[in-house]
Amino acid sequence: MWGVCFVAETDAYSQYRETQIMTASQGKLVVLLYEGAIRFMDAATAGLESKKYDAVNNNLLRAQDILTELALSINFDVGEIATKMYNLYMYFNRRLVEANIRKDREPILEVRGMLVSLLEAWRQVADKMPSRPQPGGLNVSG
User: Fold this and answer.
1) N or C: which end of the chain has fewer CB within 10 A?
2) What angle do CA 123, 57, 107 make, to 5 degrees?
3) How does pLDDT run across 60-97, given as a tens digit for each residue?
4) What are the contacts of 33-40 at 24+ separation with CB within 8 A?
C-alpha cells in the first residue's frame, strides 16, 4: 500500500516539476538549473562523507551536465559577458572533474560557493522578467 502511495506522490511531483519548467521564464529556468546543480553538489559532498563514491560520481556528473547545458545555451550575440559566463561554466566543470577524480570536496565547495552567489543574482533577474516563457530559447548570458 505504501509503495502505491509513494509512486503516486512521485508521479505527481514529476508532473508538477515538468509544468513548472514548461511555464517558467528564461530567468526562472536558469534559477532552476542553478538550484539543481547545487543540489547535486550537496549530494556529492554527502557521498564523500559517507564514502559512497558511486553516488559522488553520479551527482558530480549530473551537476556537470547542468553546467554544460548552461554553457551551451549562452547567446554570444550579447557581447563580452557571454564569453565570460561561458569560461566560468567551463572552469566550474573542470573543477568538478578534478573533485571527482581526486574525491576531494574542496573544488566542490569552491564551485558551490560561486554558484550560490550567481544564483542570488539570477533570482533578482528572474523576478524582473516576464512570467511567461519567451520565444527563441534559453539565454543564460546575463
Assistant:
1) N
2) 60
3) 999 999 999 999 999 999 999 999 999 999 999 999 99
4) 33/66, 33/69, 33/70, 33/140, 34/115, 34/118, 34/119, 34/122, 35/119, 36/62, 36/63, 36/66, 37/63, 37/66, 37/67, 37/115, 38/112, 38/115, 38/116, 38/119, 40/66
Q: Report the candidate in 51, 47, 45 with the shortest Cα–Cα distance to residue 112.
A: 45
User: Is residue 89 within 8 Å of residue 34, measured between CB atoms?
Assistant: no
The set of cell numbers assigned to 90 is 567551463
For residue 79, the enclosing domain spans: 26-128
| Helices (H), ranges, the chain | 2-22, 26-49, 53-72, 80-102, 105-128
Asked whether the predicted pLDDT for residue 12 surpasses 90, the reply is no
Say which CATH number the domain at 63 has: 1.20.120.340
- For the chain, the domain total comes to 1
Calpha distance 82→139 (Å, rounded): 10
Question: Which three cell numbers mark 41?
Answer: 553538489
Distance, in Å, from the CA atom of 79 to the CA atom of 41, rounded to the nearest integer, reads 30
Report residue 51 as a C-alpha cell: 564514502
